[in-house]
Design brief:
Number of helices: 17
Low-confidence stretches: 436-473
CATH architecture of the largest domain: Orthogonal Bundle
Mean pLDDT: 90
Structural class: mainly alpha
Shape: globular
Strand order of the largest sheet: 1-2
Oligomer: single chain
Order of helices and strands: HHHHHHHHHHHHHHHHEEH
Number of strands: 2
Distance between the termini: 79 Å
Helix content: 55-70%
Radius of gyration: 25 Å
Strand content: under 5%
Largest sheet: 2 strands, parallel
């Protein structure tokens, strides 16, 4: 393929419907990122709610730059080893009409779509340090983490020469690079940040009610909606396989939501919990992600149900491990991605992949290809181990650098991340005070109409008045 726009009609080399489908799918994945922010924000306490929305938007901005700078090249560069890509596409040099990343798409379309996956992965991972992380070091950590954790794992899984791809592990839309890497990374972030400060739970893990169930529901809606692009677009073309994957996606999410809700009815005092239904839907979506383009539609039901049950009980692991994963990122994404990947090895069918003409796989256990389950286990263990060990190294090195300490002080945590790190709040309340930065000042003549968050001007002393008179003369 050529990148010469003067002599070649680059667009004519590709199927226009496929390019449109993948571009639209990428835009759908984008909406998932603020969806994660809304989900996390609603599940947090009010004084930290804005910081989690901030983290989702920051992840979009920072990872967009990292992906442009060298992320895409490290993950999908062609002159590479089986472990990490090269820097031949540094700052997206040469990324236009060739098809080095995907056989059926121009590089620029494939780069856009995969960039959305990078953003959502970083955003999910940041939930591990909710309510106690310093935001400046968080940005430094995210850039480093995307470079030396996510990019290698994405290369192993999706690059045609990546070692997991060559080995034959199945991962349709990111059960390993997106969910397991972020879930295990969040577990390491939560471990090294330590548990949240709470005088009432010195010996246990603090647990708080979500401050806004409405935000949780809205975030789940954004995620569910965007997941149709996440899984459907991973076919890489406008084939039946991508649309089949979307049917699997919706069914698994629905069954996951019902399963978690019914399970919580028995575990939570016979209440039909909204949080449980939303958590189950997300768990079902995570579980079907690696399997969506591989399994027959009737297996989406057990995948959604089994993943929801495992993730529901996985939430209790933080009490056993004594790791304060307040957003349950590891339970839903780490465990859910692992379960989904293993079930893919059981239920993958060769004819489902063949619905995208020219794609051929051996299938899983239902095709009597029993080796596939071992390949899936090898992929899961390697990704989980890499994410946890490397994330821990990054955080421990940063924590030894004074200006990169990863956690807030006790006083800052008591005041809330929003007040001490941002100076803005999700909700305006009459008794709320913004210590820094000062946003406005009250003009003495308008004192009766003063904003409740404004800082009044200091009263003039007699010396100031005399000075003013002197200056006037």
């Amino acid at each position: 393929m050529s990148n010469d726009v003067w002599t070649t009609n680059l667009s004519a080399q590709y199927d226009g419907a496929s390019m449109v489908w993948v571009m639209v799918s990428g835009a759908l994945v984008w909406i998932m990122i603020p969806g994660v922010g809304l989900l996390y924000s609603g599940m947090s306490r009010k004084k930290h709610a804005l910081s989690l929305l901030w983290a989702s938007m920051m992840a979009i901005c920072l990872v967009s730059f990292q992906w442009y700078f060298w992320g895409y090249s490290l993950a999908f560069g062609t002159a590479h080893s089986k472990f990490l890509g090269s820097l031949e596409h540094f700052c997206l040099m040469g990324v236009l009409g060739e098809n080095g990343g995907s056989a059926g798409l121009p590089d620029i379309v494939f780069c856009f779509f995969q960039g959305m996956f990078a953003m959502i992965t970083g955003c999910i991972m940041l939930g591990g340090a909710c309510e106690r992380a310093r935001l400046g070091p968080m940005m430094v950590f995210l850039f480093i983490w995307m470079t030396i954790v996510y990019c290698p794992v994405a290369m192993w899984t999706w690059n045609t020469d990546g070692w997991l791809n060559v080995l034959g592990a199945y991962d349709f839309a990111g059960g390993g690079p997106v969910h397991q890497a972020s879930g295990v990374g969040a577990l390491a972030y939560a471990l090294w940040c330590g548990k949240r400060r709470d005088p009432l739970t010195q010996k246990g893990i603090p647990k708080y009610r979500p401050h806004s169930v409405t935000s949780v529901v809205l975030g789940t809606v954004f995620l569910w909606f965007g997941w149709f692009g996440f899984n459907g677009g991973s076919s890489g073309d406008a084939s039946l396989r991508g649309f089949y994957a979307n049917v699997n996606t919706n069914l698994a999410a629905a069954c996951g939501g019902l399963t978690w809700m019914f399970l919580d009815w028995f575990r939570c005092g016979h209440k039909w919990t909204t949080i449980g239904m939303c958590s189950g839907a997300v768990a079902g979506l995570v579980g079907i992600t690696p399997a969506a383009g591989f399994v027959p539609v009737y297996f989406a039901v057990p995948i959604g149900c089994i993943t929801a049950v495992c993730c529901n009980y996985g939430v209790d692991l933080k009490d056993i491990l004594h790791i304060d994963d307040g957003m349950d990122v590891f339970a839903i994404h780490g465990i859910g991605g692992f379960i989904g990947s293993m079930l893919t090895g059981l239920f993958a069918a060769d004819y489902v992949a063949a619905s995208d003409f020219g794609v051929s796989i051996n299938g899983g256990w239902i095709n009597h290809y029993y080796r596939q389950l071992g390949l899936q286990l090898a992929a899961c263990c390697s990704i989980d181990l890499w994410s946890f060990v490397v994330t821990s190294i990054i955080l421990n090195v940063m924590n030894r650098i004074p200006f990169l300490k990863i956690r807030l002080s006790e006083e800052e945590e008591d005041l809330g991340t929003d007040a001490t790190q941002i100076g803005e709040f999700t909700y305006q309340e009459s008794n709320m005070f913004i210590p820094e930065p000062v946003r406005s000042r009250v003009v003495p003549g308008d004192a009766n109409n003063a904003d409740v968050n404004a800082v009044p001007l200091p009263e003039k002393s007699s010396t100031d008045e005399e000075k003013h008179d002197t200056d006037t003369v």
